[in-house]
Amino acid sequence: MDELKKYLLAHRSEMDVDMPPGKVWKGIAQVTTKKSRPLLHLSAKMVTAACLVTLLCFGIKWMAFNEKKAERIALADNLLQNIKNAVNANRQDMVKVAPRIPRQPLQKEIKPDNKQKAAVLLNDLQSTYSLIVKMQLNQVRNTPVLGEDANYFAAFKTMLDQMDNEETIIRKNITRQGITTKLLETLINIYQLKLDILKNLQIEIKKMNDVIKNNDPAADSIKAFYLNI
Amino acid sequence: MFNICIRMAGNRPDAEDILQEAFILAFKNLRQLKDVHSFGGWLKRIVINECIRHSKKIFHCDAWTAAENDHIDESNIAWWSAISIEMLHNAIKKLPEGCRQVFVLYAMEDFSHKDISTELGIAESTSKSQYHRARQLLKERITTEINIYG
């Protein structure tokens, strides 16, 4: 690698000073606020079909499923404990790696007599992630935005709304079909994506504010806005 | 992302269009994202692809002499370190079409000449010669600017 290239790669971030105008985000928001197909339309159909097949085979597979009862409870407990540990260990870093769920060979519903326990675990999962998302949202809402109005970040709001819609669809699917590992993993991915979006939004606000403060001596007198997302 | 677009396009209006197209494309293909933690890298790849697609519409390579193909002149060591990053960045943005894209992809986005030749549909030797041309132009232009303005 030649020396100029090394120098440029080392100082690359110092060259990232240009900012796009608000009309770019408005243009993106205009296109993306059109009705889009649900993200998991095909996945929901596949999960439904898998659950129907599983129910038909339920009587034959009852003994084998019973043997794995203890394993499933331990898996769900482990999942919840991992999430709680991650939240308690480092609240400053809101974006966490989603706990890896071992892939199961078949989409199986949790046995009826464990449904209540699974529902409780699912509620705990949802409330834990919702708490983290809410904390991140509050942080964004309380961050002053200099130089641009709130519409500048409309695209981020659109993405968050889309994630909310996807979460609603998954929750409905879980209510109808019961908890499957695929639905659970998808739900966790949606929460993770929300956190990523909020983190990226904070980074963008901070970058923009820094550029304005560095380039405008009268930055202190610029009216600050607050995002309502 | 916008800075990548500006460096590749060379002007703000085109960069804004490319950025908008890239984000819309990303939204439409969000379901193809398998790992949420790679969202940033995935989006950056889409932005770079859109920049390359835009460049290929206008890309043309001027012939460069074969003698100046491979040798990098390091005799004047680190002339770039004596100037501000802002001046260097502005000079990069003003490089002519063709060599600017190659320079940005190679020196700032860390593409190999082989990858650049594949993406832009040019020979690997052309990619190398365009990069050397860009380096030479940067040095000449910045030296001239310093001589004129101090």
Helix percentage of chain A: 55-70%
Enumerate the spans of chain A where pLDDT stays under 50 for 5 or more consecutive residues: 89-99
- Taking the alpha carbons of the first and last residues of chain B, their distance comes to 32 Å
Number of strands of chain A: 2
Continuous helix count of chain B: 7
Shape of chain A: elongated
Account of the protein in words:
The complex is a heterodimer of chains A (229) and B (150). With 229 residues, chain A is mainly α. Chain A has helices at 3-10, 22-32, 41-56, 58-67, 69-89, 115-141, 154-177, 181-215; strands at residues 145-146, 224-225. Chain A contains 8 helices and 2 strands, in the order H-H-H-H-H-H-E-H-H-E. Chain A has a two-stranded antiparallel ribbon with strand order 1-2. In chain A, helix 7 runs antiparallel to helix 8 (181-215). Mean pLDDT of chain B is 83; it is low at 63-69. Chain B starts with a helix and ends with a helix. Chain B is globular, with a radius of gyration of 17 Å. The longest helix of chain B has 26 residues, at 124-149. By secondary structure, chain B is mainly α. Chain B is built from 7 helices and no strands. In chain B, helix 1 packs antiparallel against helix 5 (99-108), helix 2 crosses helix 3 (39-58) and helix 6 (113-120) crosses helix 7. At the A-B interface, helix 1, helix 2 and helix 8 of A face helix 1, helix 2, helix 4 and helix 5 of B.
